[in-house]
Amino acid sequence: MPLSLNDIEQHANKNKTILQEVELPGLTSRPTVYLKREDLIHHEISGNKWHKLKYNLVEAGTQGCRTILTFGGAYSNHIHAVASAGRILGFNTIGIIRGEEHRPLNPTLEHAVKCGMKLIYLDRTTYRKRNEPKFQNELKEKFGNVYVVPEGGTNSLAVKGASEIMTDINIDYNYICTAVGTGGTLSGLICGAKGKGTVLGFSILKGGAFLIDEVASHVKNFSGNSFSNWKINLDYHFGGYAKINSELVKFIHDFENLNGIPLDPIYTGKMLYGICDLIKQERFGVDDVIVAIHTGGLQGVEGMRGKMANHQ
Questions:
Q1: Are residues 59 and 187 in the same domain?
Q2: Last residue of a domain, one of 125, 153, 181
Q3: What is residue 264's DSSP assignment?
Q4: What tens digit of pLDDT does each residue of 82-113 get?
Q5: How far apart are alpha carbons 216 and 219 in whole angstroms?
Q6: pTM of the predicted model as reported, rounded to 2 decimal places
Q7: Are 38 and 123 members of one domain?
Q8: Between the N and C ends of the chain, which has fewer C-beta atoms within 10 Å?
Q9: Burial tier of 241 (Cβ tally within 10 Å: 0-12, 13-18, 19+)
Q10: H or E segment to which residue 175 belongs
Q11: What values do phi and psi take at 183, rounded to 5?
């Protein structure tokens, strides 16, 4: 029997995804900054992943697919979330993982296996073909009637889900901010904002300029509009995906000590560091209201602990 949206939504803790005013380290005067606590929507299918997956899961059931096949790196929040969703909601999952297998498995992949996900490793050259129709058809021939979700979960259904993050932001704001990986969440926020305020993305990828065209395409395809009230900042990737330094690690620790809210060093930590630095540069007005989206991803902290300890 296909999953309904109600079947999925009953697992969400939407009453916990509050707007929480936060203090940023090292600032004396500042705009008002709120953190939208999407990290609390579900203890495993966290943050933006919940929103990006839910309509895809409904569509998979509508198509009669009982297996989700998707792609990601070894520390992927998306892989973790899809595996969890499969266990909780009762469907099969296959993860196509970029790179070679390493034993013992890191915490992300160990969790995926415990949830029942079948892992397939591809060398990086082959992995680059992941979005090609011919390659995806080959996967469908190999694995049968599977529903393919792109890397990071980003497609039109994900944009639809992410747009709903905006529905319960019931305050007047000047800026909506989010970290940007594949662009799906930013695209959804732009569509959900419907031209109100400025929607500001912080790329966590080095060389993330390509995301500007990607997001513009997602927004146009989903909404039929080309909103102009958004941009992507490319200055706070700290060297690239999962790259960190001592300054970022110190900022995260200081933020957590001030606010009691955990951050991940790959996404939300970098975004909030960027916001803080732009405030220091007086790029925001003191009367501005900034809403930053906590996109979850805390499962990745365990795998980053060693790297973060080296930057203490």
A1: no
A2: 153
A3: -
A4: 999 999 999 999 999 999 999 999 999 999 99
A5: 5
A6: 0.95
A7: no
A8: N
A9: middle
A10: strand 175-180
A11: 100, -5
